Amino acid sequence: MLGTLILKEVRDIFGSTKFVISFSVCAVLILLAFFTGAQNYQAARRQYEAAKAENLRQCDGLTDWLMLRQNRIFLPPEPVAAIVTGVSNDIGRTVEVTGRGELSAEDSRFEGEPLFAVFRFLDLEFVFGVVLSLLAILLGYDAICGEKERGTLRLVFSHAVPRATYICGKLIGSLAALVPALIVPILIGCLVLVLMGIPVDVNGWFRLALAIGTGLLYFMVMLVLSIMVSAMTHRSSSAFLAMLVVWVMSVFVVPRAAVLLAGRAVVVPSVDELSSKKAALNSQLWTQGRQAISRWTPEKTGGDMEGMMKQFQDMMEKQADERDRKMQELAGQLNEDRANRQRVQQRWAFAAARLSPLASFSLAVTSLAGTDLNMNDRFAAEAAQYQGDYAKFMKAKTGMVPGRGMIIMKGDAGGGAKPKPVDPKELPEFQHRPIALAGAVETAIPSIGLLIVWGLGAFITAFWSFLRYDLR
Amino acid sequence: MTDSPYLEAVALSKRYEDGVLALDRVSFGVRPGQIYAMLGANGAGKTTTINIFLNLIDPSEGEARIGGIVTHREPLEAKAHVAYVSENVMLYGNFTAMQNLEFFARLSGKHHYSRDDYHDILRRVGLSDDVHYKKVRGFSKGMRQKCGIAIAILKDAPAILLDEPTSGLDPKAGWEFCRLLESLRQEGKAILMSTHDIFRAKEIADTIAIMKEGRLVMEQPAGELAHLDLEKLYMEYMAGHNGPMPAEA
Ligand SMILES: Nc1ncnc2c1ncn2[C@@H]1O[C@H](COP(=O)(O)OP(=O)(O)OP(=O)(O)O)[C@@H](O)[C@H]1O
Ligand SMILES: [Mg+2]
């Protein structure tokens, strides 16, 4: 009986014009997502190689490492990130590294090509999150109430069909028809990646597969939700309207409202506020410094001008060191406090946003693709590590660690021998490691879990609603 | 015509949630090999009666029995013994006539039918071979009605419920339908049919009943009505000249 019902459902879906048209559109979009992702990756890869080569070319003709003005590191493009873009186009990809001081990443993709920021790219997250959820609604909203309207439900239930079997057949049949159907264009998309020579490694394939699995899970949630609504309404127009409301809430309202509320609930001081606090301390320290200078009297006034100058300079140096220390202390404190508050805010925002299946899905796939909000932090950490290596390298080569804005002058030490040019290959190379599978999965698990809860909840609700459904 | 009724309504009452009393203590029985025709104005309660037999709704009081099984107590058991044709048969539009037949035959637990059986039955109800593999979406009402009858026949249940089955059939199809019903009666099926077609009812039914505002106001063997003007009688009942269930003349 269940088999008959499932088979009928599969056949009914595949035979409908609605399915053929809407599915074709979705299949094309899925393929397009893979194709544009691959193309973007290739373009970004070329850009990356060129930038790297340019950075090394600076070393040409240099005879002293101290003369290296701008050593830059670049975030290499990643295939999976090109397919699930997340924040990857928003964050800076280039960091100018000096031996010390704060680093900042610049030159995001959208900065360079603002046009693409307007409507963003057609990536897999968008196709699944927005387009496929609409497909799920389109194919699920009239699953039950449509049959009632068309009159087939009466005929079916004039047979000895248990309601539980029927609703299970409906749910399983719809899933069994649509999920494998979606897998076909996805597999072709993966083939496109291979054919275009996109170097996806094993880790990448695993993460991509998990991201696609999460996408299918999200699709299933939306489909079961639609069937649930269709088992709670008696007119397909009401069901469609209800699902549209659910969709708008899930896609637009809940995630934004969550961010807004979290922003209200947890106050994070702005960068400007921090700067003004730092500036205040700075000027206070300077004032104190000036007062100290005016109070200063040399220890022994033996008329030794040289000794006095030395004392004065020591005092000034100590003062500067002290000022630096205090400033750094404050900056560290403020930055950490800000980062902590930001983390709390983010946690609240995500927790609330996950009420929306779309947000759960988005958070999960971007974590899996390594293009979540932490992408920036990971790059910053890698850059900081590189900074350490670079500082060590410079220290070894030149005996000092250059900082930003430092101007280094070096007189010609000895006349005769022609100085040897530096070897650019000696420059430490920036190491970027793609996000580890285990870590990515760990971050994605709560969202995936929530999607599963959504799916099961909708399944059970659909089931119970149908047991009470008026079949006439 | 001596055995006990197979389809049975026992003091069947139905009051809808909005307070409408659609059925008021209706009792009747249909024996195997008998065609029982229910006449009655729109809203008299015919479809409500059939819905209770199919357990699409529960009765407020009384019970409907199919082969002795109370429909609202053991609906699945009861429904296994009854086939149904609605007044407007609706099928799966994306399926062909053959696929519809196959699906519903399987729902009835009949897995042994072959392709030829489906063709035969479709021919028997008057659908020519050229439409057997056409999608039902494009079928006329009469063609769908015929498919519905084919599905009911395939179920091969001892009882058949028909809700205005001939509505929308052309005269020839209507005539063919009557012959079909007669052959089913020959097979010993208990047939309950609601209809607005007084003449067809008189022609094929064994018992004719008239329903009015949820009550059975007349029930007589068709044979005894043959010489009467049934239409006139019907009008009189509708106008309220006769009391409920007059004593047998
Ligand atoms: N779901 C419902 N809720 C409330 N009242 C209903 C419902 N369905 C039917 N009724 C009422 O019950 C009464 C009997 O309706 P029913 O459909 O059984 O009549 P019928 O004899 O089949 O009429 P027709 O010849 O038009 O098919 C009518 O008064 C109708 O308004
Ligand atoms: Mg009716």
Describe the structure in your own words.
The complex is a heterodimer of chains A (472) and B (249). Chain A is 70% helix and 2% strand. Chain A contains 16 helices and 3 strands. In chain A, strands 1-2-3 form a 3-stranded antiparallel β-sheet. The two termini of chain A are 21 Å apart. The mean pLDDT of chain A is 89. Chain B has a 6-stranded mixed β-sheet, with helices on both faces. A 4-stranded antiparallel β-sheet of chain B has the order 2-1-4-5. Chain B contains 9 helices and 10 strands. Chain B is 35% helix and 24% strand. The chains are: A mainly alpha (472), B alpha/beta (249). Chains A and B meet through helix 1 and helix 8 of A and helix 2, strand 6, helix 3 and helix 5 of B. Magnesium ion binds at residues 46-47, 163 of chain B.
How would you describe this structure in keywords?
heterodimer; A: 472 residues; 3 strands; B: 249 residues; four-stranded antiparallel β-sheet; 9 helices; binds adenosine-5'-triphosphate; binds magnesium ion
In short:
Chain A is built from 16 helices and 3 strands. With 472 residues, chain A is mostly helical.
- Give the strand order of the largest sheet of chain A, numbering strands 1, 2, ... along the chain: 1-2-3
Number of discrete domains of chain A? 1
What's the tally of helices of chain A?
Answer: 16
Report the mean per-residue pLDDT of chain B as an integer: 90
Biggest sheet architecture of chain B: 6 strands, mixed
Mean pLDDT of chain A: 89
| Rg estimate of chain A, integer Å | 31 Å
Order of helices and strands of chain A: HHEHEEHHHHHHHHHHHHH
Fraction of residues in H or I helices of chain B:
25-40%
Tally the helices of chain B.
9
As residue ranges, the low-confidence spans of chain A are none
- Any guess at the CATH architecture of the largest domain in chain B? 3-Layer(aba) Sandwich
